[in-house]
Inverse folding.
């Protein structure tokens, strides 16, 4: 086994038996490159990446390829989910150099870690204009030996250009207005797929950030078209095979436009974001159906059932493959369904899912991963057929039990603070909207796990526990990854920002003062460690991250929200809850810094535009007087969250909102007050009265 045997990442451990002499990212590898005068071959991937596995089987397990790599390069393997900051540096290079990106990300570096050539997947033999991997290795090695000075000069020039691009980022004075949001909505509408929902063509990604932004447009501008687009998309995705029709949860994307041919891996971050979208869609469509609430429940129940550590942390992903074949766990042959189900059940399932002997992938114009396999997506809905619906539910129970006997796809069981923060927020929102206590219990256990395993509070670092939160000289530290009893030593903006958003959501669901106190401590630590007070914006890594050649401020949403967007949105909410400008000002400066991004490429920054939507107006504050755990108080909290209000915050009177409430309601009387820019409402003593006030706010 190579040096990766001592790592915690399941992805890195998978490569520990490769014949390639892999190093993990770190000082040992960097020193080896310098002492041997060899270039670095850096390969970045992740556990559920199909083409990462393909390239491993084809090339990294090939003894001849491994021997050439070992003789001519210092080889480093990185899990991009553990080190998104490392990945971001070299993906920035590749996209600037080639205009494309993806994983596996394979980059060649000087011993000083500066990139000079790279690509994504390289096949073992020349294919469709792509050179073979061995040919690439031979050419890079030859150029390094014969023209090293030119290569190093080129790498220096590339690095200088990347540094200049970061240094040039500064506020432009662009006016922040709702026109930026209108422009984003207009561009999303142009890309909307009116037939299947979603945006653009295949491959098709759910894009929860864009869907959430359009829901805000529906509220802000009374844009019924935006609302219709989101509800239609949510419905089509829920019917699609991208949605696990038996176990709940969503796959990463589909290779077709109709959501029917999924790439079967499931990611925690996708499902966290989609759960919140479906919950909000439920709030806006509940007069028509509770269907979207059921989809959200299925997502969260899947995570709690299959993706949760016994102590409450959430695992990262499930692979697309099982038994060596993509999708085998999820697909069915017609013969096995006929054998499993009664004739009546089979008839309904066959029609509902479009089951065929040949496999319905063929019908969809895509080759089946296995002969005769059928993917489960709704082809013929059972409208007005209660008897058929009953048979379908009976069949599903049998199919779930049968599927549970199959070998499951590999699970990446590392626990990432950033993604856990997203799921924490989804669970808190689900408790607020649906009132199910199991979601609150899961959220509380998850936060306890993170605070126990990944958070080092300020007092443990020598700060006096009595110091005001703004005066802490050594703020608390939040680490990024925990697995198998150990955490890493990496700090990332995304971890702080995503967790802050989740804790703010949990406070609003519970009104527990200790939640608000922790949110304040976490926000202060994030500002101290990542905020740039000179021009605004947040760095993705702290200044003492010495293993990076470049510090980046990233506002673009990828599969996950950007750290800057989530930091801005969470801080704005926290400022509304606490009344502190020390939280509002960094958020405002961040929005001003990235105003050109919101104007020029709004599709790339939907979460930043959501933060702008929150900032544009004075937020609506729902102040609830009463003991947080009292049933009447909880009923009012639930009512406050039952009306879609993305720019509404809910808070109790034990903290900063105490002075907003009349003296007569500070002595235990339970009531809710709606505070807007126009003033404070009369007290609402019942849920329906509060809902009525919020509907007019």
């Amino acid at each position: 086994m190579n040096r990766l045997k001592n790592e915690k990442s399941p992805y890195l451990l998978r490569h520990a038996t490769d014949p390639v002499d892999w190093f993990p990212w770190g000082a040992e590898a960097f020193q080896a490159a310098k002492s041997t005068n060899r270039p670095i071959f850096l390969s970045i991937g992740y556990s559920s990446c199909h083409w990462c596995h393909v390239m491993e089987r084809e090339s990294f397990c090939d003894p001849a390829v491994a021997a050439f790599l070992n003789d001519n390069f210092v080889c480093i393997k990185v899990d991009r989910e553990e080190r998104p900051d490392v990945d971001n540096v070299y993906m920035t290079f590749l996209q600037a150099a080639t205009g494309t990106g993806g994983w596996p990300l394979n980059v060649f570096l000087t011993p000083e870690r500066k990139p000079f050539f790279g690509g994504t997947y390289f096949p073992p033999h020349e294919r469709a204009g792509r050179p073979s991997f061995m040919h690439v290795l031979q050419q890079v090695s030859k150029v390094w030996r014969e023209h090293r000075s030119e290569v190093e000069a080129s790498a220096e020039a590339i690095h200088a250009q990347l540094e200049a691009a970061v240094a040039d980022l500064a506020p432009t004075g662009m006016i922040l207005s709702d026109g930026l949001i209108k422009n984003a909505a207009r561009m999303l509408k142009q890309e909307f797929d009116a037939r299947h929902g979603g945006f653009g063509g295949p491959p098709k990604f759910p894009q929860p950030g864009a869907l959430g932004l359009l829901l805000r447009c529906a509220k802000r501008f009374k844009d019924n078209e935006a609302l219709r687009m989101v509800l239609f998309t949510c419905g089509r995705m829920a019917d699609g095979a991208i949605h696990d029709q038996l176990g709940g949860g969503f796959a990463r994307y589909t290779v077709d436009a109709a959501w029917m041919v999924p790439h079967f891996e499931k990611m925690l971050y996708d499902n966290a974001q989609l759960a919140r979208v479906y919950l909000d869609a439920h709030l806006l469509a509940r007069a028509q159906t509770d269907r979207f609430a059921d989809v959200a429940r299925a997502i969260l129940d899947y995570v709690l059932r299959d993706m949760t550590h016994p102590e409450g942390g959430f695992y990262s992903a499930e692979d697309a493959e099982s038994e060596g074949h993509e999708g085998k766990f999820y697909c069915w042959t017609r013969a096995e369904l006929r054998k499993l189900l009664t004739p009546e059940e089979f008839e309904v399932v066959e029609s509902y899912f479009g089951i065929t002997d040949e496999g319905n992938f063929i019908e969809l114009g895509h080759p089946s991963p296995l002969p005769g396999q059928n993917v489960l997506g709704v082809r013929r809905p059972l409208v007005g057929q209660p008897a058929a619906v009953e048979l379908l539910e009976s069949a599903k129970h049998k199919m779930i039990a049968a599927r549970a006997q199959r070998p499951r796809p590999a699970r990446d069981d590392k626990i990432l603070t950033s993604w856990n923060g997203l799921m924490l927020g989804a669970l808190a929102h689900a408790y607020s909207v649906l009132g199910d206590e199991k979601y609150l219990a899961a959220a509380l256990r998850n936060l306890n796990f993170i605070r126990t395993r990944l958070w080092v509070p300020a007092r443990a670092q020598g700060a006096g526990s009595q110091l005001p939160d703004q005066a802490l000289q050594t703020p608390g530290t939040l680490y990024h990854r925990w697995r198998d009893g150990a955490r890493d030593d990496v700090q990332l903006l995304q971890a702080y920002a995503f967790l802050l958003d989740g804790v703010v959501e949990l406070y609003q669901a519970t009104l527990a003062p200790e939640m608000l106190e922790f949110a304040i401590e976490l926000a202060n630590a994030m500002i101290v460690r990542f905020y740039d007070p000179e021009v605004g914006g947040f760095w993705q890594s702290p200044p003492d991250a010495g293993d990076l050649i470049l510090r980046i401020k990233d506002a673009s949403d990828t599969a996950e929200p950007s750290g800057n967007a989530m930091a801005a949105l969470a801080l704005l909410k926290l400022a509304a809850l606490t009344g502190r400008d020390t939280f509002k000002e960094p958020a405002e400066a961040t929005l001003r810094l990235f105003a050109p991004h919101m104007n020029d490429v709004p599709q790339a920054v939907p979460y930043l535009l959501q933060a702008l939507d929150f900032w544009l107006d004075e937020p609506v504050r729902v102040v609830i007087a009463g003991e947080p755990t009292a049933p009447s108080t909880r009923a009012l909290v639930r009512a406050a969250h039952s009306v879609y209000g993305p720019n509404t915050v809910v808070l109790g009177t034990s903290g900063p909102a105490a002075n907003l409430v009349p003296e007569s309601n500070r002595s235990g009387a339970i009531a809710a007050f709606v505070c807007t820019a126009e003033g404070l409402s009369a007290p609402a003593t019942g849920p329906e009265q509060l809902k009525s006030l919020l509907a007019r706010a």
